[in-house]
Design brief:
The complex is a heterodimer.
Chain A: H1 3-15, H2 20-29, H3 37-48, H4 57-88, E1 96-97, H5 98-121, H6 129-132, H7 135-144, H8 149-154, H9 161-193, E2 198-199, H10 208-218, H11 233-238, H12 250-254, H13 256-259, H14 262-299, H15 303-311, E3 315-316, E4 336-337, E5 346-350, H16 354-363, E6 371-374, H17 380-389, E7 393-399, H18 406-416, E8 421-427, H19 438-451, E9 456-459
Parallel strand pairs in A: 1-2, 4-9, 5-6, 5-7, 7-8, 8-9
Helix pairs in contact in A: 1-3, 1-4, 1-14, 2-15, 4-9, 5-9, 5-14, 9-14
Chain B: E1 10-15, H1 21-29, E2 47-53, E3 56-63, H2 70-78, H3 87-98, H4 105-115, E4 119-125, H5 134-144, E5 148-153, H6 161-168, E6 174-177, H7 185-196, H8 200-237, E7 240-243, H9 251-279, E8 287-288, H10 302-308, H11 312-333, H12 341-356, E9 364-367, E10 375-378, H13 386-403, E11 412-413, H14 420-424, H15 427-441, H16 448-466
Parallel strand pairs in B: 1-3, 1-4, 4-5, 5-6, 8-11
Antiparallel strand pairs in B: 2-3, 7-10, 9-10
Classes of the chains: A alpha/beta, B alpha/beta.
Chain lengths: 460, 479
């Protein structure tokens, strides 16, 4: 898992067209990475990498990052080299004050490394001031202003801010390392090619013993292994320099060959403070970047959905196939009876018991010699007997709320062969005083229109 | 009999025509494609609704046509004088003999799944009186020998369920009441539990289905919250740009960018609503809502602001307190050496900002002058009330969609209830939300974690309104 895989996944998620079913199938078929989201994403990416369009965004980004980093490293090295040469320049009149060089290789690195540690702690914040004051951040911004073809491809790339912070932090360490190497090279080069008289000078009241003790403390990492790389009290005494009088002391001149011994301490100080410690920070930033990549993997747009599609079961409750569209016919039925006659030859009730039928007839003020229940609990034979008895004009009460079934239509068809007229009268419930609802009558009208028999009338 | 073919439970929803079988199936299967009408005979073919998890069927529901010639079928069956253990074979014979007989098409369609092992769910309308004509249907079902239960549906207000229960008790071991139009998840699960009891070997798979179904509901809430969180963030932070030829923008250009900006926000809201409807399986929802025209109960009007979002007073209080919190952060940083001046200053800055930010959407800025490419820019959203309006509308919409029965086919009216705001937004929540809205407004890149936290906050709101067990709290029915 690295920046390239992060960018490949970023590109894949942008272009991915896989269905939730395909993603779930992937999740189910890769049981070894189950419950390991990062591994799942990596496995998914590997399997779908072929979909990536070339040139790969990750390659373009890495190449840009590499070239920008290389340029910055080269600049930093040259700056370090020039700074070292400048600090170690010796014109033959005044010795080189080691405190300047020490500041550059010990105190400045310690200060910037402390800032780096703080910036690492604050790297999770989107707008980290400590990250934004890094020279790497601004040098990159300046480089971006230069015309560059690949930057056009990367214009729309949105790298996670957390990741961007860690990239800057890590790159800052490389640049600082290059700068320190520049300083070390300058020191070694100058020492090898020139005779440098090192001295130390300060306005503060520091005794040679006190200064020795301070230097010995600074040299704690190597003093036991390389005691010759720690300046002795004698050397410190001999190399203390005061500018007053604009003239070197006799003692210094007589010990000129010894003054050069300082370089060992300076070389070890550079090696330890500016290079080894910085390298440790570099390693730390690499770990931080790796962790940031892990975290950024999960916050990539679409990654959460991809994981959820992979890991959550697909639940479906829908029908297997679409239903044929039902077309409702108009409820226009032309054989409509607006009123009832005073009497009928027979009153029938479809699934209405005889006693209730009589009550309904009375309430409708309809007289008929006989009342029969049909349908309902009757057998088909009983219905047939009623049909054979029927003649003339028939009033057929039906329960308005019970939709007409084909059983009813069969009965009606059979009845039409024996009678002259059938008035189908849908009635409401007793609680509704037998008044039907309009939409219920519409249902009956639609059904009767399928039969469309001239003898069949509907009472609305 | 082919009952042993499949191992998972099957349930056939059968009954008299037009008694709400399809409504019950639509509700239980959460499928809004089922055709439902008050015309008998809408369902002409049996239709399968499998509950599938990763393609594996855990149980299957069948919607079937209603009985049309029950007495004829029963008469045919009764011609065969057989012992009780052979009756189901007679039913199978009936199916075999009349498979191609159009007059028994509906009966064949409904009896087939039963004879293939489906449990029977016999549906009646408890709002209409019991009638003897149902007895032939129930007798036929008894002949099949399959486990059965009756469901009393209530299509209307009137209640005849007592007389139905007395009659159904003679034919069915279990009689339950279920109204698909008002049932919530709790009712749904309760019916599934009853269905599981029909056969001992069905208990375990149906219970597993119930567990998955509950998880499914929770995921719906979570997905909705994520979608809403993204809507608010994107809408608040979105920036609309319009290239212009000169360094001065005309009134038309300013109006154009404002219209583009508003339309973009509306599209974002529409897209989110569609996503939420899809999450809750309401892909075919027809709705009415006072959204598109910028008038009346508009997203941007002060009237809507007071209903959906915060009133000016609430906004001032929220801004002042959240400003003070930022100020207090400064005090903390300097270990209180600022004598709490930071908090006071933060409160003042917040309040002033809120006062001026009530009506303004976003300033129209002319940018790019120095680079020679002129364009107008509108956004990120400066109106402090806007995120509350948008969030309130999104929550209301989600609650309405989640609450809506899949058996309903009418147009849903999404006009918001004026008291809704009080039901989800209180003082402490307002402060929490404001901290997020401030981040959204800043225009800076947002950490994914912040959006996740915001989504979780919304999920809590939705859970509070919809309920952990899916039982929706009392909300007025707007449809």
């Amino acid at each position: 898992m690295n920046l390239r895989s992060y960018l490949d996944l970023y590109s894949l998620l942008q272009e991915d067209t896989s269905t939730p079913e395909e993603r779930r199938a992937f999740g189910l078929s890769h049981v070894t990475v189950k419950d390991k989201p990062i591994e799942q994403l990596l496995a998914w990416m590997e399997e779908h990498r072929y979909q990536l369009k070339k040139p790969l965004l990750s390659e373009a980004f890495s190449s840009t990052l590499y070239s920008v980093s290389l340029t910055l490293v080269a600049i930093a090295f040259v700056l370090g080299l020039l700074s070292g040469i400048g600090l170690l320049s010796y014109n033959g009149h005044e010795p080189v004050n080691v405190i300047y060089f020490m500041s550059m290789v010990i105190f400045v690195p310690l200060f910037t490394m402390t800032l780096t540690l703080f910036s690492m702690l604050r790297a999770n914040s989107v707008q980290s001031l400590l990250v934004h004051i890094s020279p790497a951040f601004w040098m990159e911004r300046l480089l971006q202003l230069l015309p560059h073809k690949t930057q056009e491809d990367l214009k729309n790339l949105k790298v996670n801010p957390l990741l961007a912070n860690w990239i800057v932090i890590k790159r800052s360490q490389v640049i600082a390392l290059a700068f320190s190497f520049g300083l070390l090279c300058a020191l070694l080069g100058m020492v090898a090619t020139k005779d440098i008289a090192f001295a130390w000078s300060t306005t503060l009241h520091v005794t040679p013993e006190g200064f020795h003790s301070f230097l010995s403390t600074l040299a704690f990492p190597w003093r036991d292994f390389f005691p010759w790389a720690v300046p002795s009290v004698e050397l410190i005494e001999q190399s203390q320099y005061f500018r007053l009088g604009d003239k070197l002391s006799e003692e210094m001149v007589s010990n000129a060959s010894k003054l050069g011994e300082w370089w060992k301490f300076l070389a070890f100080a550079t090696l330890f403070y500016a290079i080894i410690l910085r390298f440790l920070l570099y390693l730390l930033s690499s770990v931080g970047l790796k962790r940031a990549i892990r975290r950024s993997f999960l916050s990539l747009e679409g990654a959460k959905k991809l994981l959820s599609d992979m890991n959550e079961p697909i639940i479906s409750t829908h029908a297997k196939q679409n239903e044929a569209v039902f077309r409702q016919t108009e409820s226009l039925y032309s054989n409509v009876a607006d009123s009832l006659d005073a009497s009928y030859d027979l009153v029938l009730g479809w699934a209405i018991p005889k006693e209730q039928l009589t009550v309904i007839s009375e309430s409708m003020k309809v007289i008929a010699p006989r009342h029969y229940e049909v349908g309902g609990a009757n057998t088909l034979e009983e219905d047939n007997e009623v049909i054979h008895l029927s003649h003339g004009e028939i009033l057929l009460f039906v329960k308005a709320w019970e939709p007409p079934t084909m059983d009813f239509i069969d009965f009606l068809e059979a009845l039409t062969k024996y009678v002259d007229k059938i008035v189908v009268y849908p009635v409401g419930t007793m609680q509704e005083q037998y008044r039907p609802r309009e939409k219920e009558i519409d249902v009956w009208a639609r059904k009767l229109s399928t039969l469309n028999h001239k003898k069949v009338w509907l009472k609305r | 009999m082919k009952a042993a073919i499949s191992t998972y439970p099957k349930f056939a929803v059968v009954g008299h025509p037009n008694k709400g079988k399809s409504s019950i199936v639509a509700s239980l299967a959460q499928d809004d494609t089922v055709q439902i009408s008050d015309t008998p005979g809408t369902t002409t073919k049996k239709r399968s609704f499998p509950f599938k998890v990763d393609g594996k069927i855990l149980y299957e529901l069948f919607d079937t046509p209603g009985f049309q010639r029950a007495r004829k079928v029963l008469a045919w069956l009764e011609q065969h004088d057989v012992s009780a253990n052979k009756k189901h074979e007679v039913v199978q014979q009936f199916i075999n003999q009349h498979k191609n007989d159009p007059q028994f098409n509906d009966e064949i369609e409904l009896l087939e799944p039963i004879m293939e092992g489906a449990g029977i769910i016999y549906v009646v309308d408890g709002s209409r009186p019991y009638g003897e004509e149902y007895e032939a249907e129930m007798e036929i079902l008894r002949w099949t020998g399959q486990p059965s239960m009756a469901l009393i549906n209530h299509i209307d207000e009137t209640d005849y369920s007592e007389e139905w229960k007395r009659a159904l008790g003679h034919y069915f071991r279990m009689v339950r009441t279920y109204n698909p139009m008002s049932a919530n998840i709790k009712d749904h699960i309760s019916i599934l539990e009853s269905m599981a009891q029909l056969k001992e070997e069905w208990i375990s798979p149906v219970k597993a289905s119930i567990k998955l179904f509950e998880n499914y509901q929770e995921r719906m809430l979570q997905k909705s919250s994520e979608v809403i969180a993204k809507l608010v963030y994107v809408s608040v932070s979105v920036v609309e740009k319009l290239p212009i030829p000169s360094d001065e923008a005309s009134d038309e250009e300013k109006k154009k960018i404002e219209d583009n900006y508003k339309n973009r926000l509306r599209r974002l809201e529409e897209d989110t609503q569609k996503k939420i409807e899809d999450i809750w399986n309401h892909e075919h929802l027809r709705k009415q809502q006072p959204l598109l025209p910028f008038k009346g109960m508009d997203l941007f009007s002060e009237e809507s602001a007071s209903i959906f979002g915060l009133t000016r007073k609430e906004l001032l209080v929220t801004a002042a307190t959240s400003g003070a919190i930022t100020g207090a952060g400064i005090d903390l940083l300097f270990a209180g050496h600022t004598l709490l001046l930071g908090a006071a200053a933060g409160a003042v800055v917040g309040t002033v900002g809120a006062y001026f930010g009530f009506n303004e959407l976003s300033e129209v800025k002319i940018l790019g002058k120095t680079l020679g490419k002129h364009y107008l820019q509108m956004g990120p959203m400066e109106n402090r009330n806007f995120p509350y309006i948008l969030l309130g509308r999104a929550i209301w919409h989600t609650v309405q969609v989640a609450k809506r029965s899949h058996a309903k086919r009418g147009v849903v009216n999404l006009a918001m209830d004026s008291s809704f705001k009080e039901r989800w937004l209180d003082e402490s929540l307002r402060k929490s939300l404001e901290n997020y809205h401030k981040k959204f407004r800043s225009g800076k890149e947002l950490e994914a974690e912040v959006l996740n936290e915001y989504g979780k906050l919304i999920q809590k709101i939705l859970e509070g309104l919809i309920g952990n067990e899916g039982s929706l709290k009392q909300l007025p029915d707007t449809h």
